[in-house]
Amino acid sequence: MQALPKILVTGANGQLGKELKQLSEQHQQFEFVFLSKEDLPIHHFEMLHKNFEMHKPSYVINCAAYTAVDRAEQEKDLAMQINSEATGMLAKVCKENNCRFIHISTDYVFDGMAKQPYKEDDATNPQSVYGISKLEGEQLAMKYNPDTIIMRTSWVYSEYGKNFVKTMMKLMNEREKIGVVNDQIGSPTYAADLAEAIMQTIQWLHIHNSQLTTHSGIYHFSNSGIISWYDFAVAIKQLIRSNCKINPIPTTAYPTPAKRPVYSVLDTTKIQNTFGVHLKDWKESLAICIDKIKKQ
């Protein structure tokens, strides 16, 4: 009996890793291996090689990342080690093992000065250590492994981990009023929808027996719809029926160590056309996620 193709997921305890784990039950045609940062710190290269020898994956989904955007300004070396150097090494090991590498990246690779949604080949210009580390990770992955598929996404949230939706729900329960930035524009991404898009991409590649050199490169994914963080907070308030007053504030009223993109909407045409990925409306996905959080 032929062994099932194996999908190895790094960063398995993060938002996306946990959503992929939940989704894996629907994909019996693959075998999954989920490794947390404790199981496999991707910047420990000896462990990386050992895990490849042990598991022999056909696909690797790299959800492991240094994601503390503000702390990265002080911990540049660590952010670069995980998001850049380790990503390049992971891509290289995938290449050596004839394994497809799928890497998750971010809207922070752009400077946020655009006036229309960013296409995959638009000029990058990160404004934070986090953004610089993620861009360098993309570049090293493509350098060491031209067969890499990079998925950039934005404003990720889920029922797991720390994220904007869960923070807002908590604050709205505790306070009578809050201020939320209204001059940063983007598209939210429900991690469960991103997980589905990744699995749909892998399925497509598997069914079409895609040669490694085809369909590689960068793809953008988010839910559909363009909003501000303030709009996002108002929608959360409505869904949880909170009485908390939300005041729109400018970015200048809420200074952070790392600079955020003012406009980070991603053009998702390519992933839809290439892999037939369907985008859900952000409000529809937000309602599903909040419903799950309430049941916890």
CATH class of the domain at 6-158 and 189-225 and 265-280: Alpha Beta
Give the overall form: globular
Q: What is the level-2 CATH architecture name of the domain at 6-158 and 189-225 and 265-280?
A: 3-Layer(aba) Sandwich
Helix content: 25-40%
Poorly predicted runs: none
Compute the average pLDDT.
95
The largest sheet has its strands arranged as: 2-1-3-4-5-10
Q: Given the structure, what is the number of helices?
A: 9
CATH fold-level topology of the domain at 6-158 and 189-225 and 265-280: Rossmann fold
Proportion of strand residues: 15-25%
Provide a concise account of the structure shown:
This protein is α/β, with parallel strands linked by helices and 296 residues long. It contains nine helices and twelve strands.
What does the model show?
The protein is of the alpha/beta class. The protein has 9 helices and 12 strands. Helix 1 (15-24) crosses helix 6 (191-207), helix 3 runs parallel beside helix 4 (129-144) and helix 5 crosses helix 7 (229-240). It is globular. The protein has a domain at 6-158 and 189-225 and 265-280: 3-Layer(aba) Sandwich (Rossmann fold).
Properties at a glance:
single chain, 296 residues, alpha/beta, Rossmann fold, 6-stranded parallel sheet, two-stranded parallel ribbon, 9 helices, globular
